[in-house]
Structures are given as structure tokens and as C-alpha cells.
Write a structure and sequence with these properties.
- The complex is a heterodimer of chains A (about 475) and B (about 180).
- With about 475 residues, chain A is mostly helical.
- Chain A contains 20 helices and no strands.
- Chain A has helices at about 1-10, 15-20, 40-65, 80-115, 120-140, 160-180, 185-195, 200-210, 215-250, 255-270, 285-295, 300-310, 315-320, 325-345, 350-355, 360-385, 395-425, 435-470, 470-475, 480.
- The two termini of chain A are about 20 Å apart.
- By secondary structure, chain B is mainly α.
- Classes of the chains: A mainly alpha (about 475), B mainly alpha (about 180).
- The structure holds protoporphyrin IX containing FE (2 copies).
- One protoporphyrin IX containing FE sits at the interface of chains A and B.
Chain lengths: ~475, ~180
């Protein structure tokens, strides 16, 4: 029996093995407290991530309206543009992206290691403290205690608590990984290791240091770009690498390509920070190193493109059937798009024209709204179907998909054109005040796109809440719908 | 055995991260071409200016206004009038407020436009503009900062008038 299992196991790919032994449901008893049951941490992190995703979209929409109709909600200091904007970014990065993808991480790690999480209880506890802490930090910003430097706005002590929580989370995950029963280390785990190991270093550096002038700027961007690149992006990619092969029910196109993709990303991403101050008064070699590394990012981007493209090739039938899979593909396409776009923005001549314009905003939202949002949605649908074994409403999900798609395209195209128009106008001798009127239609279009995304999000949340709370008999998936 | 597959990964990752850390964090601390001294003529912020700077940071002015003139075509007019920003110009800036976007104009030389020697009219304009930007430019999208106290508006004005103002006091032969 044992050897037969072993035989079948070694014949299937590592990915498929994870389908065989899902969780340790067998050792779960009703006497366990809810917070000790498996996946209880996953659920809190994931649902919190979805909650914050909605909040950050709502705030983004308010800001977007204020950028063409500044009297909107005027007169309430807590809703002033300059205070809402850091709340939008911090909730986006630390609420939605961090929490949502940590939810996925807490789901993946026990399965990839074939080992129960080191401590479900610690996992759940850190999630609740994280939520409370984030509320505190954002209230601090809204009440005028922002630290005032981009991506480090959350005031003391809330900023430091995030760092401590990540150490606890990393410890929890890392312990699980070292105690693992599965010897092989799948790509997703590499990305997770990259995410959890250096974080405390650059996070503390970025938030607790007091440098001045240009040195402060270089360190600020070293921290920020690592936050986007080797914390959020890596967790996002880990999730996609995990769910896509399962959604298409075949192994990853090439493990060699993922190897190249991972190690080139790990080598080049931490050098990218300086590309935020191209043409600034920074030492020449900081700029050269960062621009070179940004252009070298083409290698991991290309590897990801080939690997997911190869895996997805010829899966039209699954695309039609599985809406979650479509979201994975959307995330994948936008990730590749945002990364190529980023490489383009790091080209010195293009940066000269487009830095300071809405083109950066387009790039950022192609990254977060185009890659981060659909990626987490894909994971959520995956989780509901495959792990909870529930069936969500298909018409709602179908609407959700098309609204999200439309909104993302609208956002990125409007801001992209606006950025190009601004850059061209400045090069022709015009000033930012002079282009205010030119930006108006694009800002309106961006707000409409945001509204469309938010509508889709509303359908999504409704769908998830209804599905998860519905009586099991009504929503259980039929086995053939899963076929995995 | 368990460790054999994870620890090499951890070590190589640490080395890769450590390299970038050395290059972008430690090395600038020793670099000779990063400002170790203020640009000639730069003066430290006075107490009201420093308070104003804090307000500028916490109210989020930095999200729409850069403080950085680059030697590129898009900044040509500013370069012609005020020159390119140098590292030493930021010597007293903690935190830095270089900015990443220009929904509004660059402010690194604002104190040379609304100069102190204009006197009260310049202050009156700046304060009234903070309170209601659309009084002067109906299509402006700048938020109105009507919720700031009189003291805060005054500090903010002091800070804005300090931006780049010192450059006007530097004798031409020293500046070059
Ligand atoms: C409904 C969707 C959204 C809308 C309407 C929206 C709107 C906006 C607006 C108006 C800005 C300020 C742009 C400026 O300064 O000119 C902004 C910035 C930003 N948003 Fe969003 N946003 C949305 C979704 C998101 C999401 C989901 C994230 C996820 C993390 C996000 C992350 C950011 C970041 C990081 C910035 C700062 C960009 C920079 O400094 O260059 N946004 N957004
Ligand atoms: C190969 C990958 C990438 C490269 C080379 C790259 C490059 C760049 C460059 C050059 C800028 C500065 C633009 C400017 O200010 O002129 C930038 C800004 C930014 N990027 Fe990327 N990017 C990449 C991928 C991503 C991804 C996938 C995300 C999000 C998940 C992201 C998030 C951001 C954010 C938030 C900013 C704005 C920071 C700010 O100004 O506040 N980037 N990126």
C-alpha cells in the first residue's frame, strides 16, 4: 500500500501531489478550538485582504474624483486629498496586498510542505493584531500624524508593530518549512522564502531610520521598491505559480525556466530602488546600477511570460469554464505588462519625459489593480471551489470578471495617454498648471473606470459572502466540475 | 536532510540581498559624490520654517508637488530660470520631500517667486491661495486647506518662502 502510493506519487508531478494530501482534516476533531483548526489563519488573512481591497478601491475612487472636482467632500480634514492618498496606498499595500496574499501563503505552505502550520493560533492572532494595528495607523494618518515620506507614512508605533508582526509571521512560516515532510521545494516556496527573509531588514531601515536629503531618498526607494518587488510581487507570483497548474490540471511548463526566472528576479530586484530618482542629484553609479538592474528585469519577466504562457497554451476550454482561471491569466498578463512597462520607464530618455506624470500612476495600477487584484480574486475563487468545495454564483462572477477587466483597461489606458500628453506638453515648454485642463477628461475617465472596478468588487464580495454562508447542500460543487 | 534543500536557498538569497544592500544603502554612506556638506549659501530652516515643513509633509503636499529640477528637456524652462537641483541643496531635509508626481508645479524655487522682499502681499497671496486655490485659478485642482489654523498657515508660508530663496543671496562667482 505504502509503496504503491509512493509509486503513483513519484509518477505525478509535485504539483499533483499536493492535491492528494490536502490538509490534515483527519486529525481534526470537534474538540479543537476554531482558531486551531487548519486554514483558520488562511481564512482571516484572506477575508481581511478582500475587505481592505474594497476599502482601498473606495478611497481611490474618492481621490480620483477629487482630482477633477476638488470640492468633492471638501471641508472635512480627515477626507482631505493629501491625507486620503497615503491611506489609499498604505491600505493597498499593507491591508489588501499583504493580508490577502499572506492568506494565500498560509494556505500554500502547509500543502507544499505536507506539514500542518507550525501554529494556526499564532497565524490567526497575528492577523487580528495586524487588522487592528492597520486601523490605528490609518486613523493616525487621517488625524494628521503622517510621517510624510512615501510608503512610510504610518506613524509610530503602528509602523514598528507591522515589522514585529512580520517577524512573527515569518517565524511561523519558516518553522513550518523547516519541519516539512515533503523534501522537494516547489517554486512557490522559493518566492515565499524571498518574501519573508529580508523584509525585517529593509522595512526597519525604511521606517525607523533618520537620514537626510538625497541619502534619505535613496534609502526610501531602496525600501519601497523592495516592498513592491520582493514582498508583494513575490507573494503574488508564489500564489500564481501554485494555483495555475492546478487550474489547468497539468504541471508547470518548465521548472528550469522558473528556476532562471526566480534567481534572476532575486538578483536584480533589490537593485531597482534607484530608478525612482533617475536624473536626480544622486551619485552616477546608483543611477547606473539601478537602471541596469531595471533593464535586466526583462529576464525574469520573460521567464514568467514563457512559463505561464506555455502552461496556459491550449487551455481555451478551461478558460471558458473556469472564471477563476481567467482571473489568473489576467493577473499574469498585467504582471508581464507592468514589468515591461516598468523596464520602459527606467530607460533614461523615457524617464526624462514621463517621470512625474500620470504614466507612473498607470504603471502602478497595472501592477496593483491589474496584477494584485485579479491574482487575489483568482485565489479566492480557487479556494472556495477546491478547498471549501462550494459553488459560487456563476452569473455574478461572470459580471465581476468583465467589469474588472473593463475597469482596469479604462484606468491604465486613460492614465497612460494622460501621462504621454503631459510629458509631451512639458517637453514643448508647457508647465503642470498649463496641462491641468488637458488632464481633465482623463481624470474623469479614470474615476469612471474606478467606479466600474468597484461595482465588480461589490458583486464579488456579495458572491463570496453568500457562497460561504449558504447551507452546504445548496452550494456544494459536483465532483466532475472540479476534475482534479 | 530537511535543511539541505532550504538552507542553500536561504543563504544565496541572503547574499543576493546583501549585495544590493551594500550597493544601495552602505556604499552611499561612504560615497564622496553624495552631499556631505550643504551647497554654498544654503541656510538651515528656522523654527517656523521647520514647523511649516512638517505640515507640508503631513498634509500630503508632496504627493502633487515635486521639489526637484532635473537636467532634462521637460524641465528646460526651470533649468533656464533657476538651475538644476544639486545634492547639497537637500542637506537639511529630513525626511526628503523630492516627490514623485506633478499634479501641480515643482516648488523647489517657490521662495524665489513669492519672495520675502515682496513683503505682505506675497504672504497674503500664499495664505489666501492655501485657503482657496480656485479664487485665483478657477480650474485648479489643488485641495483647499481651509482647515489649517492661522498659525499653521503662517508656518507653511514661511516654509514655502524659504524654498530656493537662499540661492538669490549667493554671489554669482561662488555659485558657479
Ligand atoms: C478603484 C480602483 C482605484 C482607484 C480609482 C485608484 C485611484 C488612485 C488615485 C487617484 C491615486 C493618486 C494618483 C496621483 O497622485 O495622481 C492613486 C495612487 C496610488 N494607488 Fe490607487 N486606485 C485604485 C486602486 C488601487 C489599488 C487596488 C491599489 C493596490 C495597492 C492602489 C495603489 C496605489 C498606489 C501605490 C498609489 C501611489 C502611486 C504613486 O505614488 O506613484 N490603487 N490611486
Ligand atoms: C520588472 C519589473 C518592474 C520595473 C523594472 C519597474 C520599474 C519602475 C520604475 C522605473 C518606476 C519609477 C517611475 C517614475 O517615477 O518615473 C516604478 C514605479 C513604481 N512601480 Fe514599478 N516596475 C516594475 C514592476 C512593478 C510591479 C509588478 C509593481 C506592482 C506590483 C510595481 C510598483 C511600482 C510602484 C508602486 C511605483 C511607484 C512608486 C511611486 O512613485 O510612488 N512595479 N517602477
Amino acid at each position: 500500500m505504502v509503496s504503491r502510493t509512493h509509486l503513483t506519487l513519484s509518477m505525478t508531478s509535485l504539483q499533483d501531489r499536493n492535491n492528494l494530501v490536502a490538509t490534515n482534516n483527519s486529525i481534526e476533531s470537534s474538540s479543537m478550538r476554531p482558531m486551531d483548526r487548519s486554514d483558520s489563519a488562511t481564512r482571516i488573512w484572506l477575508y481581511s485582504g478582500i475587505f481592505w481591497m474594497s476599502v482601498t478601491m473606495l478611497i481611490g475612487l474618492i481621490e480620483a474624483v477629487k482630482l477633477f472636482y476638488p470640492e468633492f467632500l471638501q471641508g472635512i480634514p480627515m477626507l482631505a486629498y493629501g491625507r486620503l492618498r497615503p491611506v489609499h496606498t498604505n491600505i493597498g499595500l499593507f491591508g489588501f496586498m499583504s493580508m490577502g496574499y499572506l492568506g494565500a501563503t498560509f494556505y500554500m505552505v502547509p500543502r507544499l510542505t505536507q506539514t500542518p502550520l507550525f501554529s494556526e493560533r499564532l497565524g490567526s492572532l497575528t492577523a487580528w493584531v495586524w487588522n487592528l494595528n492597520l486601523v490605528g495607523g490609518c486613523l493616525g494618518i487621517l488625524m494628521g500624524y503622517s510621517k510624510g515620506k512615501e510608503y512610510t507614512e504610518i506613524p509610530f508605533p503602528f509602523d514598528m508593530i507591522i515589522g514585529l508582526l512580520v517577524i512573527a509571521i515569518a517565524g511561523n512560516l519558516f518553522s513550518t518549512i523547516t519541519m516539512r515532510r515533503e523534501q522537494r521545494v516547489y517554486v512557490s516556496l522559493w518566492y515565499i522564502l524571498l518574501a519573508i527573509i529580508p523584509f525585517p531588514i529593509y522595512y526597519t531601515l525604511g521606517n525607523a531610520s533618520k537620514f537626510s536629503g538625497i541619502e534619505d531618498a535613496i534609502i526610501n526607494w531602496f525600501y519601497s521598491h523592495n516592498l513592491f518587488g520582493i514582498w508583494l510581487t513575490t507573494l503574488g507570483l508564489a500564489t500564481l505559480y501554485y494555483i495555475v497548474p492546478k487550474q489547468v490540471n497539468k504541471p508547470l511548463y518548465s521548472h528550469i525556466v522558473s528556476f532562471v526566472g526566480f534567481w534572476s528576479l532575486a538578483a536584480f530586484y533589490p537593485w531597482n530602488g534607484g530608478h525612482h530618482v533617475i536624473w536626480g542629484p544622486v551619485p552616477m553609479w546608483v543611477m547606473t546600477a539601478s537602471v541596469t538592474a531595471s533593464i535586466a528585469m526583462f529576464v525574469p519577466t520573460f521567464a514568467t511570460m514563457v512559463n505561464f504562457g506555455g502552461t496556459a497554451w491550449g487551455t481555451w476550454a478551461i478558460m471558458k469554464r473556469d472564471i477563476g482561471y481567467r482571473f489568473s491569466l489576467m493577473a499574469y498578463a498585467c504582471y508581464v505588462g507592468a514589468s515591461l512597462w516598468g523596464t520602459g520607464l527606467a530607460v533614461m530618455s523615457l524617464n526624462a519625459k514621463l517621470h512625474f506624470t500620470n504614466m507612473t500612476i498607470a504603471h502602478v495600477h497595472l501592477g496593483f489593480l491589474g496584477f494584485g487584484v485579479p491574482g487575489l480574486i483568482a485565489f479566492t475563487y480557487f479556494y472556495i471551489e477546491r478547498s471549501l468545495k462550494l459553488k459560487y454564483s456563476r452569473p455574478l462572477a461572470e459580471w465581476h470578471f468583465w467589469l474588472t477587466m473593463l475597469g482596469i483597461v479604462g484606468y491604465v489606458v486613460s492614465m497612460g495617454i494622460s501621462g504621454w500628453v503631459e510629458g509631451s506638453a512639458w517637453e514643448a515648454g508647457n508647465s503642470p498648471q498649463g496641462t491641468m485642463v488637458d488632464r481633465y477628461p482623463y481624470h474623469v475617465a479614470r474615476a469612471i473606470s474606478g467606479l466600474i472596478v468597484l461595482l465588480g468588487q461589490f458583486l464579488f464580495v456579495t458572491n463570496v459572502v453568500k457562497t460561504v454562508n449558504a447551507p452546504a447542500a445548496l452550494t456544494a460543487t459536483s465532483p466532475d466540475a472540479l476534475q482534479s | 536532510m530537511r535543511y539541505t534543500r532550504v538552507f542553500p536557498i536561504v543563504i544565496v538569497l541572503s547574499i543576493l540581498f546583501g549585495l544590493a544592500f551594500t550597493g544601495l544603502v552602505i556604499a552611499p554612506g561612504f560615497a564622496s559624490d553624495i552631499a556631505r556638506a550643504p551647497t554654498v549659501g544654503l541656510v538651515a530652516y528656522t523654527a517656523p520654517e521647520a514647523r511649516g515643513r512638517k505640515i507640508y509633509a503631513r498634509e500630503g503636499c508632496v504627493y502633487c508637488h515635486s521639489q526637484q529640477v532635473r537636467n532634462v528637456k521637460a524641465d528646460e524652462n526651470m533649468v533656464a530660470s533657476y538651475g538644476v537641483s544639486k545634492a547639497g541643496d537637500y542637506f537639511y531635509d529630513t525626511p526628503h520631500l523630492l516627490g514623485t508626481g506633478r499634479q501641480g508645479p515643482d516648488l523647489s524655487n517657490e521662495g524665489r517667486i513669492w519672495r520675502r522682499d515682496i513683503g505682505q502681499p506675497a504672504r497674503d497671496y500664499l495664505i489666501a491661495h492655501f485657503i482657496n486655490p480656485r479664487q485665483y485659478n478657477p480650474s485648479s485642482i489643488m485641495p483647499s486647506f481651509d482647515y489649517l489654523s492661522e498659525q499653521e498657515l503662517s508656518d507653511l508660508t514661511d516654509y514655502i518662502q524659504s524654498l530656493g530663496a537662499w540661492k538669490d543671496n549667493v554671489p554669482a562667482e561662488v555659485a558657479s
